[in-house]
Amino acid sequence: MNDLRATVAKHKAAVEGFGSGITPRLASAKGEVEALAQGVVEQVSALRPSISAALGGLLAQVNAANVTLADPSPRFQSLATEVEGHQQALTASSTTARSQAESLGQEATAKSQGLEAQAKSSAEASQGQLTALQQQVAQKCDADKKSFDAKLAKRKGSKEETEARRAQGYALIEQTRSQLTQDLTGVGSTLGAALAAVLVRLATSRDAATGRSTQLTSTLDSAVKDPVSALEALHQEIVNAGTTAKDAHQQQQSALEGQRKTLVDQLMAAAAAAAGIVDPLDTQVAPSLTAGQTQADGALDTLGRTISGQVASVTAQLTAVEKFIDQVQQQVESAITTVSGTIDGVVQGALTAVETIKAPLKATLEAAFTTLDTLVATISALKQQVMALFESLPQLLEQLQTLFQQIVGSLESLLERAMGLLDAIPAADLPKPLVSPAVQGISQVVGQITTQLGTISSQVGTQLQAVQKTIVSQVETVQTQAQTQIDTATTQAVTQMGTLTQSVLQGIEQASTQIGQIVAAAVTQIGTVKDQGVQQIEAMKAQVAARVTPLDTQVPQRLEALDAQVGSGIDAAVQAMQSARDSAEGQVTSAKGRLDSHLGTTNTSVTAGLTSLETARGSAETSLTTQADSALAAFKQRAEGLKSGAQTQVDSVSTQATGQKPQLLSPLDAIGAQLQAGAFAKPVTAANGRVTAALNALGPKLDALAS
C-alpha cells in the first residue's frame, strides 16, 4: 500500500509542481512584456540623462573653469605688516638701547649714593672710636696720677724731694696727655679731610657717568625719530597701494565671471532646445506601448485561469484516488488487527499450557533444594561435634605446662637457698680450724641436695613424657572418631545428592517434551491464520493497484498537453508586444539623431568659449602680478634702507653704553674697594697703637720717680 500511495503522491506532486510553475512562467512572460515596453521607455528616459550628461559635463567644465585671479592685496598687506614690524623692532631696539644708556647713569647714581652713605657711616664710626680713645687717655692719665700719688705717699724721703718728684711726675703725665690728645685731634682732622675727598671723587665719577648717559640718550633720540616717522608713512603708503591693487583685481574678476555667466546662459538655452526634442516622445510612444502591454497581460491572465482550472481537475482526480487508498488502508489495518488478535489468543493458550507443565517441575526443584538445606545443616552440626572433641586438648596441654614450670621453679628455689647458706658463712672473719669443718659439712649437704634435684628432675621428665604420650593417644583416638563420622556423613550426602539429581533431570526432560509439542501446535495454528490474513490484504491491494496503474500514463500525457498550451499562449502575447516595441523604437531613433546634432553644435561653441575665458584670465593675472611685483619691490627697498640705517646707529649707542659702562663705573668700584678695605679704620687703628704704647711707657717712668 505504501508504494501505491507513494506513486499517487508522486503524480500529485508533479501536477502541483506544474501548477505552481505556471504562475512563475506567466510572471516571467509578463516580465518579458514589461521589459519590452520598459526597454523603449528606458530609451526615451536615457535621452534625458544623455542631455544631462552632455550639457551637465559642459556646465561642470564651465563652472569648474578657473576665473579666480590671485589677489595681490594680501601681499601688500603682508609687506605693510613687515614694515610695521621694522618700525616696532626699531622702536624696541631703541628702547633697549635707551634702557642701557639710562641704566648707566642710574647705576652710577645708585652706586655713588650707596658708597657715600657707606663712607659717611665708616667715617662716623672712626670718629666715635677716636672720641673713645680720647676718653681712654683722660681716664688713664687720671688713674696714673692717683696711683703715682699713692706710691709717693709710701716713699721714704724728704718732703721737698717728694714734692719735686710729684711735680716731675705730674708734668710727665700732662705731657703724655697733651701729646696724645693732639695726635688724636690730628687723626680726626685727617678723617674729615679724607671723607670730603671721597665725597668729591664720588660726585665726580657720578657726574661723568650720568653725563655720558644723557649724551647717549640724546644721540639715540636723534637717530631713531626720523626713521620711525618715515617707516610709519611708508606703512600707510603701502596700505593705500594694496587697496588700489584690490580694486583693480575686483574689476578684472567681475569681467571674467561675467564672461563665464554668458557660457552658462548658452548651456541653459541649449538644454531647453534639447528638451523640446525629447518631451514629445512621451505622448507619442507611451500610449501605444501601454495598449500593447495591457493586451498581452490580459491574454496571459486568461491563459493562467484556463490552465489553473485544468490543473485543479487533475489534482481532484488524484485526491479521490488518495481517499480510496485511505479507505482500503483502514480495511487492511482492520484485517491485520483481527489476525493479530487471533495469533495473540493462540500464543496465550500455548503460554498457559506451558505454565501448567512448569508447576510440577517447580515443586520437584523446591523439594530438592529443601533436602540440600537439610544436608548442609547436618554437615554443620557434625563440624561442631568434631570440633568440640578438640576443645579440651589446649586446656590439658596448658595444665601440663604449668605443672612442669612449678616443679622446675621449686627445684631451682631449693638449690638457690642451699647455695645461699654456703655463701653466708663468714669464712674470712673466722679462724680457719673452725671454718673448714662447717664448709665441708655444708658442701656435702649442697651436694646431696643437687643429687636429689637431679633425680627429681629426671623423674618429673619421665612423668611428663608419660602424660604427653597419654594426651597424644587421646588426640589420635578423637581424630579417628571424627574422621569416621565425617566419612559416613559425606557418603550419605553424596548418595542423597545423586538421587535428587536423577529425579530433577527426569522431571525437566519430561517437561521439555511436553512444551515442545505445545509450541509446535501453536506455530502451525499461527501460520494458518497468517496465510488467511495475507490473502485477504493482497486482494484489497489489487483493487487499489487497478486504479493507480493507469495514472502513470494519463498524468504525464495531460501535463505535456497543458505545457504546450501554456508555451503557445505566452509566445503569442510576447510577439504582439514585440511589434509595438519595434514601432516605438523607430520614433526614438529619429529623435536621438536630431538630439545628437544639437548637442554636438553646443559642445563646439561652449568649448571655444572656455578657451577664450582661460586666455583672458591668464592675461589679467599676468598684468596684476607684474604691477604688484614692481610696487612691492620699491616699497621693500625703501623699508630695508630706513631700517638698516637707523638700526646701525641704535646698535652703536647700545654698544657704547655697554662697552663704556665698566670704565665709567670703575672709579666708584675703586672707592668701594678702599672703603671695604677700611680706609677710615686704618688711621684709627694706628692711633690706637700709638696711644697704647705711650700709656704703657708712662707707667714705668712714674714707677721710677715714685721709688
UniProtKB/TrEMBL annotation:
* Disordered: annotated segments: 83-122, 581-606
| Gene3D superfamilies assigned | Apolipoprotein A-I
Q: For bias kind Polar residues, which ranges apply?
A: 88-103, 581-590
Which SUPFAM superfamilies does this entry report, sorted A to Z? Apolipoprotein A-I
Q: What is this protein called?
A: Uncharacterized protein
Q: Which organism is it from?
A: Corallococcus interemptor
